[in-house]
User: Fold these one by one.
Assistant:
Number 1:
Amino acid sequence: MTISRKVFFAGCCGGVIGLCVAIVLGWLSSYMSLSPMLILPLWPTSIFGIAFNGPLTFSWTSILVIVLVFGGNALLYSIVVALLARLFFSFMPTSHEE
Amino acid sequence: MGTGDIDTMQVLASTRTLDTSTTSPLVCLLSTTFAHQSISTGKERDSESGNDYFEARYYASSMGRWLSPDPGGMAVVDLEFPQTLNRYAYVNNNPLSFTDPFGLDCAYLNNAGNGVESVDQQSSAGECGKSGGYWVNGGLTNININADQGSVQMTGTTNGTDQTHASYQDANVVVSEWNNTIANPANHIAISLPGQRPVGQNPLSDSDFISNIALNGFKYNVVPGTIKPQTNTGKLLKVAVVPVTGMQAKMIQAFINQSMANPSNYSLNTQLGLDCATWVQQLLGNAGVQTGPMQPMPDDLMNQLGSMYKVY
């Protein structure tokens, strides 16, 4: 597997983790009040939904909020994880198979 | 006459009571331009402007109205008496029946809440409520206090015969934290008076706020705001019960009504506008209710209120 594929795979995993973190925190917040010190570092894109106080309905605003808040976190995590992976592999000695 | 002139008049009024031995040359110069004379209300009249000086504000006898609105703000408005909506009106536009020799009157109860400790005749309704007092139009003549029920009924007079009335009921204001959608894990803060649906500060348009914060960031976002009632679909997470005096409850109600009619901008930066938590804190602060330092995040505010009041 080439380094670029490994980085892409790591990015995809990061995206899934980011989406899961957002969903879990969002679900938890409907049962207990969570500290902003926990939410903002783990789910930075939740800032886009901070003023959204209506129910999620099938409207353009709701779709925009969901895409930005959940999709944005997935994208953010995937970028960060891919960058870390790229950094990691660039410092790793070349493997025996390659 | 513009607002600037009124402000100047009020500044002059405050300088006139100074001891001339300690006043600046400017104040002395200004004070020489005022020749006072008594009129039927027993208040001093400025010979130059023809306005009468009451303790709280100036009265233009030529126009039959106050030069500035009642300093008590919207708190002095009693919807049972619509004339009180006109905060410039003198004795509710009924000068043949009333005079208002004190302008304003405020009673403070003792610590036990079962008797009057003092009456401040130099107060304003706003200052009175913020300090935990009870206000009546004119001079206080009678007060009935029911300490057990937290109710206060006051009677005043503006001319010695006709009566004015004020009725107050102590109340618990409820500050509540809501989760309305999983897309907003920071939750929402609303406030309610007894028997009313909770209301809170929101952006007028959610999509405007989202695009605004995307463009301007956390620090410089600001959009028009609105006061919305809490929806039934939200989940109630925490409730803080804040006891207030009857006067403060009326002030809070008046501030809510004022915010509904003329909402502040919505912003996460308190320098530019108000978010839901800051709006509630400002509302309570305007009525003299202590809530501590400003906390823009709902969870932080509820934790802070938890150290001062009962939180469930």
Note: The radius of gyration of chain B is 23 Å.
Number 2:
Amino acid sequence: MNNVIEVKNLVKEYKELKAIDNLSFEVHEGEILGLLGPNGSGKSTTINCVLSLLKTSKGSIKIFGEEMKPDSYEIKRKIGVIFQDVAVFDELTVYQNIDYFCGLYIQDKVTRKKYVQDAIELVGLQDFVKFYPKKLSGGLLRRLNIACGIAHKPKLIFLDEPTVAVDPQSRNNILDGIKKLRNDGATIVYTTHYMEEVEILCDRVIILDKGKILAQGTTEEVKELAKIDEKVTVEVNNLDSSYIEKIKQNSNVDEVTYTDGVLLVKYKEGKNNLVDMVEFLKKENIKYNKINSEKPTLNDVFLELTGKELRD
Amino acid sequence: MTVFKTFLQVLKKNKFIVIMYTVILLIFGNFSMQSNQSSTNFEASKPTVFIVNEDKEEGITKDFIKYIKEKCDMAEIENSKEAIDDALFYEDLSLAVYIPQDFGKDFMEGKKPEITIKKRDSYYGSLAEMLLQRYIKVATIYQKNIKNEDELVAKINETISKDIETEVTTKIDTSALTKAARYYNFSSYSFLACLIYIISLIISTFNEEKVQKRTTISSYNYKKFNRILLLGNSLYAFVLWILYVVMSFVFVGPTMASINGLLFIANSFIFVICATTLAFFIANFVKNKDSINGIVNVIGLGSSFLCGAFIPQEWLPETVKIIGHVFPTYYFITGNETIAKLEKFNIDTLMPVIVNAGIVIAFSVVFVILTNLVTKKRRKV
Amino acid sequence: MFLHNFKYSLKTLFKNKMLIFWTFAFPIILGTFFNMAFADVINKEKLSIIDIAIIDNEDYQNNKIFKTAFESLSDENSEDQMFNTKLLDEEKAKEMLNKEEIVGYLKMQGNDPKLVFQKNGVNQTIFKYVVEEIVQRSSIVENISKDEIKKQIEQGNFAVDAESIVKRVINETSNTEIEFENTANKNLNYMMIEFYTLIAMTCLYGGILGMVAINQTLPNMSNKGKRVAVAPTKKGTIILSSLLAGYVAQLLGLVILFAYTIFALKVDYGEHTGLVILLAMIGSLTGLSMGVAVGTLSKKSEGAKSGILIAITMTGCFFAGMMGVTLKYVIDKGMPIINKINPANMITDGFYSLYYYNTLDRFWFNVASLGVLCVVLITISFLSLRRQKYDSI
């Protein structure tokens, strides 16, 4: 497996703040790598350093096996970047925007025309080519933003939170588009703080906080890191605290909480837990409304690792 | 209260604008104040002259120079071609006179030596030329008969010193009142700029879509909301007005405490009311904060140029004056000009002032009605 | 690449409404205002016919000298008409004086004239000088005639024809005309300065174009700039082509403004067309480099940067005489350093020297000053532009 990006011992310091603290990771060819972390964890800074926009304090960055520098035009030609904030010209139409940015990579007019058309189709903006960005809804604007970054058919794509504040329809469109890009052979680095997207989309995940890697591996591997294996929630009214003590006696139970009529039980191992719970409730003659069982999510992993919710 | 707080925040953020227009008023005030000192006795207007004398300063040449210095003000510039040319261009100088070498000697010999001048084609330039011509003319006539230089000089002086009885009827210090009128005329620009700019910013902050939705569904009715905003804006306008009135006392001096001065103050108060309502009206049209700067400049400068805030109304071409009638500023300035000339105060003499002020008030009423119409319509959509 | 970016830079600049307003529309609007307000100022300063009145009494009717003098000075068919004279009774004259329909009136009391004015002023002064001159002329006639008669008597001629002597002397006096040669340049219309400041303003407002153009290419200034920075293009090429687009847009604005001021407003730029173009070009280059400097050195928002540029420009134009030509002269004379470093004045003064001066020293001095300023601003910007990576973006 080839490494498209190799980052070694990367450090980025602002005056007092260590934004990136000795970061090392690789991105493999053809994969979608999820870069996860709360706001301010260093995701965007990492990308900006990799792209050679920011000065780094220490460390080495290689892309396609070569050192990345501001004038590494051959490397840059193969990269597409979609930044977090929408970066398009309000004065240009959808078509002109894509054509402008694509033109920075592709000189040949005929090829460019075809590429721009492909990009418009990929994000589904066919009906809006003559629109100005001000007239587009938030979701459509995000799609335009993406089209501007990938029109030149890059081999390596950075997507920095492309789905923030996007309606579900556009989000699905965007996620489908990303999958398509990967299927066409591109390698993708995807930052987000939406767990669901990572679980649907990414082959591998890196969890960042305060500039450090907390965990990395495939989604399954990362989930393993959670101590728990199953969560059972029961909606039940007026549960006596003595029952909670009883539940805790089960050696498989890690934690029990009861708030606002919802009983939450976390199990270390995930076998027959739901059945056990139903039997327990029957035995004790407790009336309940709803009961269900979940596997842990990345959010739980993150909560485990950092003690805070990912989506704050 | 929240409305008021937001108000202060916007004002604080943009204090630079208010300071800038106030400073411009200060500088302008300071400049236009340098007009002639005046009294109620007759005083000849003196053109400013510069003398370049290449002759020896004696005899008739000396007397000629003495005569010029008596009848004219001397320009305080250095004796260089560039300084003279610049001064002439910018009207710091009405005329420069070049007395050639051996002028006195040639003149006594009856050779009619040529004096050259540089002058502009203005009242003062013509006046200066007339003064110079008179001396040379008298001298030339007498020279034919009188060959003794001292005798000639004595005779010239005897003739040109003949004065005539002059009476000036006005009993008021017109120049101080002219100053006051100029100051208040210019203040219309600063008022408009400061009021439109700040009020538009404040209103557009409140009108921004999200905020507007909240105010529309809140229990405020639009009239009450407008009234609260109008109150805040009025308070700001009032403070600005007080500031400018105080500044006028500093510039013009005790004249401001006379009846004329108080009329200026009252007239400007009415104008400030009108400017506030106009600002309020414009503000409700402004959709984009970036465009405020443009609107302020076009309306502020436009009404000031066309109504005579920058240069006296009497100097404006007739057609421009007619166009000026569409702005309330025009009536404010006409009012100021009338006040500056008032000597007797009775219903007849005050009528023009009252009529002009009335028109300004009528403008204000129209602006208030239009603002209410516009906001009412917008809320229904 | 150069052309691609150039083409799109132009498109974005021309689509930006705020830019178009400040660099294209605003100068034309302001120029129109100037023209409307100042059209008559220069003419109204010229000596025009003065409205006066004379009290129609016996003393006036009997005074031949005054009567003939005022009749000739009030002759509507004469080129030298100075007064528009009305013969009135004193009551009526006073009324007209109060309404300022006349500047003053003359009343003969015996042989002595008396002048009544409402207030002091230039017209009043001129009226007074004319009356003085009539008095003085009769005094001259009297003096010379007396001397002449005395002389003739001394020479033993006792049959003096006094009347013919007086006639001859009157003739002689009124035929003595004194004319001075006026060597002043005829281009004395100081209102032209207003229009020159307008050109200066437009040149410097071009800074906004430069600022916007360059900020679109810088990753530390805009998101679009980040896109440009990660693209495989040379930074220098992109910056140069964006700036060239800004400059072209600016020059186009100037061409429109020049056409408008020359053909519609009849502004006179003097005779050196080539030098006028040179000055406009280097002036707008100065504006552009000012925009680049503000654009690269300040981290504020685009709106705030335009605000800074507008403030600098307007302050500069204020000192260069836009709100009153006198101010330029006062600064030039009293605090020359302010206007020596004021780009708005360098441009204004350059046009002034082309219009008014016969020599070009002053013009070249202004052009050189602008050149130096350009170099300084571009050097400062270059130090910042040279960076390829940033500490923070």
Note: The radius of gyration of chain A is 23 Å.
Number 3:
Amino acid sequence: MTDDTRPIHPAWLRATHWLNALAVVILAMSGWRIYNAAPFFDFTIPREITLGGWLGGAIQWHFAAMWLLAANGLAYLLCNAGTGRLLRKFFPLSPRAIVADLLAALRGRLSHADLHHYNAVQRAAYLLVMVDAVLLVLSGLVLWKSVQFPLLRELLGGYETARRVHFFAMAALVAFIAVHLAMVAVVPRTLVAMIRGR
Amino acid sequence: MIKTSPRRLAIDGDAVVKEALRRIEQPSRRLFLQRSLTLGGLSLLSGCAIVDEESAEHALMAVSRFNDTVQGWLFDPRQLAPTYPESMITRPFPFNAYYGEDEIRQVDADSFRLEVTGMVADKHAWTLPELQALPQTDQVTRHICVEGWSAIGKWGGVPFSNFLSRIGADTSARYVGFKCSDDYYTSIDMPTALHPQTLLTLSYDGQPLPPRYGFPMKLRMPTKLGYKNPKHIQVIFVTNTYPGGYWEDQGYNWFGGS
């Protein structure tokens, strides 16, 4: 069933994946420094893992990498939808399948023999992180230009609520990355596939 | 304006002193890149020590200028910032400047003159009673700080577009600049200067603007971040030459609009 000449990940997907990774690292680390300027929780992010040095520097990094994230993310979504990959790889998807695959994964019985195929947990996780990234961009737009996007601002509950939405969307993305990296450690072939394509 | 300044110097109005201080400040500006670029994560990802600090700083500044342009496009002169009921005013409204509260400038009301220079027809200096005699309006709007926090306040004063037309300002000019008696300075784009909610503010919450909020006047723009709203304004000038700003020259985005 597996055609060995067929790449697991097409070149456009690998390119957008790594550009996205770069953008996300810059945005998260500089975003933590921005958060530290006026934290709305009882904690601040350790300085050592933030980017930018001071608030002005962090904002410069953040507002440069946002273009990379948005442009690259848009290219990814368009290619994904346009090539039919989105439908082919992520659907069908049912809650029952997610639960079944999750239980199998926890028992160590989920097969990773064919990397062409995403299991239901992967499908759900990748779809959720796509939605989360869109939410990050939209809430970021409200924080950047709250007056110019009134509809978006009101949909996100106003400026102050949008700050929290942006933060929690970041936290969800960071949690995803932690699990994602752990999975790569468990099945290192996936890293090779994301670099070489097969 | 933000309260955490890398340095707290009582700067004299003298231009030479200012320039000297600016040069001293350079190393602290560079610090952020030294700290940030040596972080292992980034160089690991790109597989090399990406770029030297100087070119990284230039690249980030270039993107910041590009962001100014984009914000100019996005700015809709008819789009109003939301207004709020007086019950939502933040009390006490936070104090903010590049110095601490113990250094708030005291401006004498009687000897005060607002100078108006540059591309304007009428360059006469304004006394406070003259400004107070102009038609006033007020607004309850949200002040958003570059640090992220926000607070709602009530400001009253002269719509800035009315003032600009009164002094015969050339509204085809690109910038309006401000020099303040606390040595702060900043500048804004003409479309924002003409925005209906941009207010030459003389009062706060129904009282004459107190020194902590910028007596005798500040420019209040709910479409811009706090550091774009100058307090203790002494000179207003209309120009086509980019005037920069206190924080903007150190790396804050110039347009700084929301």
Note: The beta strands of chain B are 115-118, 137-144, 150-159, 175-180, 185-189, 199-204, 207-208, 218-220, 233-239.
Number 4:
Amino acid sequence: MSNWPAETKYIGHSTARIDAPAKLTGKARYASDIQAEGWLYGMILRSKWPAAKILSVNLDKARQIPGVKAAVVARDGSFTIRFYGEEIAAVAGTSKQVCLDALRAIEVQAEVRHEFVVNENEARKENAAQVWAGSPNVPATPHVRENGSVDTAFPECAAVIKGFYTTAVQIHHPMETHGNTVSWTDDGVTAWASTQGVSSVRDGLAGALQLDHSQVRVITEYMGGGFGSKLGAGVEGALAAKLSKAAKAPVRLMLTRFDQSLAVGNRPSSFQKIKMGATADGMLHAFEMENYGTAGIGAGGDSGGGSGSADIPAPYIYKVPNTRVKQSAVAVNAGASRAFRAPGNPPASFGMESAMDDLAVKLGMDPLELRLKNDPSPIRQREYKLGAEKFGWKEKYQKPGSSSGVVKTGIGCAGAAWPAGGASRNTQGEAQINPDGSIEFRLGVQDIGTGTKTVIAVVAAEMLGLKPEQITVRVGDTRFPPGPGSGGSTTCGSVSATVFDVCTNALQQLQTQSGLADARGENWFAACKKLGVNPLVVHGKWQPGLTADHACGVQFAEVEVDTETGLVTVKKILGVHDCGLIVNQVTLESQINGGIIMGMGYALYEERVMDDLSGVVLNPNFETYKLPGIADVPDIEIVLINMPERGVIGIGEPATVPTAGAIANAVANAIGVRVCSLPITPAKILAALGKVPPATA
Amino acid sequence: MNAFTYATAHSPASARQLVADKGAYLAGGNDLLGLLKEYLVSADILVNIKSLPGLDKIERGEKFWTIGSLVTVAQIEDHAEIKETFPGLHEAASEVASQQIRNVATVGGNLAQHSRCWYFRHRDTQCLKKDGDLCYALNGENRYHSLFTGNTCISPVVSSLATIFASLDATAIVLRDGQETRQNMAELYQRAWENPLAHNSLKNGDLILRVEIPTTRSRSAYLQVSDRHAFDWALVSCAAAADVVDGKLKSPRVALGSISPVPHQVETANRFLDGKVLDNATATQAADMILKDAKPLEHNAYKVPLAHALIRRTLLKLKGDA
């Protein structure tokens, strides 16, 4: 049992975001809104070649342009370019146009290399251009994991399927682009950063600039999304600092949408060759997978939580007694991957859940039944049963392709796991209680749009017997007690337990100092008054018994597919999710909505398209890098399982994991054939239906 | 973007004079500003034509309607009588981009817009359309490209209005060298069929003044399919218009967008449909004829069945309930 109160007024209920008015009125200042005294625009010159050796960079002409206050190189001396868009230099000036003119005036001498490769299948070939000279694009030995005996197990299976399931590189496109305003003075560096980790940005900047940690302050009052890609300062952060030092003025360097498409990380692709077998009663018996994907020129960047490779968990949420999994990452001349909301999980879920449905077809079983037979998680078992009832699975389920008419309907489901989602045990916080009864919480964590500030207010109000609006919350400053980077769905747990501890300590001290037996609720102001003139400052930190990990979750999808045009319309998504003790329902549901919509984009629209011949990213904008718009978003229903006994668990990541698999299965159920490749476009639907003629050229 | 001067014109003649040989007309600016910012187009002067008198009107006539080139796409979409008289035009207008863009996008700008080919639009590819040596799309990423072309550039026309105007046999009145010239949609785009550098037949300094739509076709329809439901370019668009007399088609015209550098029209199919009673078989035959000479590439062959379906559906929509 967790230590959370059993009866609650705010925890588990819904409190609107405490900063909603500030956000809606424009009072909230994001990194891209900061206008420090005397600030300049900053911009980056990027390579127009996918591979080159930069011999020299001459900034003289750029510096002569009126309004240009500084120009710096990204790296000293001669250096190698390995992808289109890699940073070469940066400028700071008094207007955007001045900077654009300056970028065009920079003279770059380069030895352009025509040997490069941007396609992972080409890069795997023996004679492919090497991304890293002297090192093969694919490591000689894949990562191999083996259990039981696959080779003897397959002949024992009653049904065996083979599939080749592929997913595209997904680009990080938070609504607020990456960037910072950096001010470098003799007193040190202040960075207003759009980041998921004020502490990691401080440490990263201090390292890059060779300063003491104490000389760098990072502030993130508001930020517009990161999804794993904003845990470090980035090349753009260090360049902004260098520009600020050179210009002796604050520099705001926010990336453009074009920049964003090239160099801030992405989710690696996956090419999953799966063979899977079950016994006649539907029990999974053998699983074999060979998978490769590209993490671009490498993995991780300086994201701190990088995905590290293109590997994915397999056979994902299922236990198969006999498995063999071989995986490798393929280097290509493209921007590196970074952690991306539940790294590895959405592609793993799509591949495995597709294979599950294909196997169900082969076994002649209802795919939900096959999951109930094989899913080892009692929580997901419960979620599937609850969801099936809500969704009307039994009534809606038809054999694949048996829906009549030109526009066919289909349903599918898929499951999620998120092994992390616990908490950072080093999280600290403090509260200042003033004699007038006002109270301010200060945590060196940041609210990346998930509602962290509101969670802090909700927990504090609950513990102190106050209202959430009576709690002042300050986050996003390295001068506050250290908090974790917002990654791995750990923030909610980290701050909830920390605030719990701060409040426990506060009440103890307040009761001691005031002599009141219970300082909560109606006694609060009387107790505070007894503090006299000095505010009470109390600290606290994460404590055991309040948080947990391993959230599950299942989703059901209903789609319509026009078999003549290939257009897919998602009609409904039902998400059944657990995340331990629900802290604030409305912001929790908001996380799940966002996860589902992002999963829809992954399923149907998003794909980095690169050109083999020129090596450029062809869709560096929202015109052709397609994200779901509101017209695409279906009816989303969320069912939550509150499990207070487990403590607090984050939801950000599991919410997006199963969507693509559920949609892909619904599409296959509708049309009777599988589109094995994400995104599922009209072109691929028509091809799967055998309607596309051969090319003539 | 490069520096330019700016002037507002108050008559077509002065607009023409101001734009001289290196300027550009500015109305809604949706396309032009993007082209300037990406350094794809350069102009020494932008001539604001939004104040040209009389070009923002929709005028009804017995034989034809006149739509001024400064009429916004939203004006067309919201025009109740257009919806009644030219339902296909209403449908095409309502599919253009987003509400915000439709509010400022003009008829002239929609017709004169440049290619959306992602190689053409990319700042660092020097493709055929930008006077480079090759069409990258031909053997590259050509999922959004043409099934038909008269030259070696395969970027398609994407104007929704051009597609529906072609089916309605509308005429653009273009001010050229001080004279009003008349060009139907085939003529307005003919040069893009022949010349990879061209987006349409307009010459430098040409100014679209208005579009005349004959009222001879009482039925019209427009359909498009995109990758998604949110605003997006058409993968294929199709427009059809005809009069229906005693259940038989009269003067039918079908035009498709996004599959050719010009609105794709096949006269033999139009003649075939003339006098026919519409049914699925007839529509299928017409679709076969319209797509007979398609040359699908590696990634755009899906447009053939998609176009086929849209032709059938658009034609059958002409039957209507009326």
Note: Confidence is low (pLDDT under 50) at residues 300-308 of chain A.
